[in-house]
Amino acid sequence: MSENYAYPLEAEWQIEEITTVVAFYTAVETAYLNGIDRQLFLNQYHDFKQIVKSKAEEKQLTKKFLQVSGFDMYVAVKAAQTSDRKRIGPLSK
């Protein structure tokens, strides 16, 4: 994994949609590296799901993001959804 990588994005997304998706990718990275407020993370995920509505597209992006970054979006989301703590992370790769 390289520290400099390109986020998986879709060409048809508008600037606002790209900004929302990148914010979620950043939240996933933060969850792994430093930990993040659980509610903030879940809010970012909710916003992400407004852009990426289908489960199939989410799975594709999760796979691409994992390949380029080493961070698993699925693991981060599950940790946030099942935790009763105020913060999640730092998560293990």
Let me know the number of strands: 2
What is the CATH H-level superfamily?
Answer: BH2638-like
Oligomer state equals single chain
Please state the CA-atom Rg, rounded to the nearest Å.
Answer: 12 Å
Provide the succession of SSEs: HEHHHE
Strand arrangement across the biggest beta sheet: 1-2
Q: Give the % helix.
A: 55-70%
**Number of folding domains?**
1
Distance between the termini: 12 Å
- CATH class, named Mainly Alpha
* Alpha plus pi helix count: 4
Low-confidence stretches: none
Structural class: mainly alpha
Strand content: under 5%
* Name of the CATH architecture: Orthogonal Bundle
Shape: globular
Pfam families: UPF0223 (PF05256)
InterPro entries: BH2638-like_sf, UPF0223
Quickly describe the structure:
The protein has 93 residues and is mostly helical.
How would you sum up this structure, described in words?
This protein is 62% helix and 4% strand. It is mainly alpha-helical and 93 residues long. It has one domain (15-88): Orthogonal Bundle (Annexin V, domain 1). Strands 1-2 form a two-stranded antiparallel ribbon. The mean pLDDT is 95. InterPro entries: BH2638-like_sf, UPF0223.
Keywords:
mainly alpha; 62% helix; Annexin V, domain 1; 93 residues; globular
Topology:
Elements (H helix, E strand, L loop, with lengths): L14 H19 L2 E2 H14 L3 H15 L3 H10 L4 E2 L5
Antiparallel strand pairs: 1-2
Helix pairs in contact: 1-2
